[in-house]
Design goal:
4% of the residues lie in helices and 30% in strands. It is mostly beta strands and 111 residues long. The strands form two sheets. The chain has a five-stranded antiparallel β-sheet, with no helix packed on it. About 9% of the residues have low confidence.
Length: 111
């Protein structure tokens, strides 16, 4: 018999994964945010933490959410919509525009 050990630090669920540019889809008056993350492999109830977030859109227009809210270190419990999208409810703020936000450096990590 051979004992094999594995370094789980590189596991998909524990590492920061880069998201597509402007991955957050927001709708005017709503605190629900849809996340575009192709082939995310996440499950409803997972807690996801986002980093490197820009709360403005490409036109530097306020979105109604702050970077601190979107990138909270406690993360958000998600609801999976399909293999490429999930949602979460921001703990503060509602969208003041309809569009996409986040910037080009957002990462997501399941905690």
């Amino acid at each position: 018999y051979e004992i094999v050990s594995r370094d789980w630090s590189s596991d998909v669920c524990s590492s920061d994964l880069a998201l597509p540019e402007n991955p957050f889809v927001i709708s005017l008056g709503s605190s629900t945010i849809r996340v575009n993350q192709p082939s995310h492999g996440r499950a409803t109830g997972d807690t996801v933490v986002f980093s490197n977030v820009n709360a403005l859109n490409n036109f530097n227009t306020s979105s109604g959410f702050t970077t601190a809210v979107l990138a909270t270190t406690t993360g958000y419990s998600i609801t999976v919509l399909n293999a490429n999208n999930y949602t979460f409810n921001a703990y503060s703020g509602t969208a003041t525009i309809t569009g996409v936000i986040g910037g080009g450096s957002v990462t997501a990590q399941t905690i």
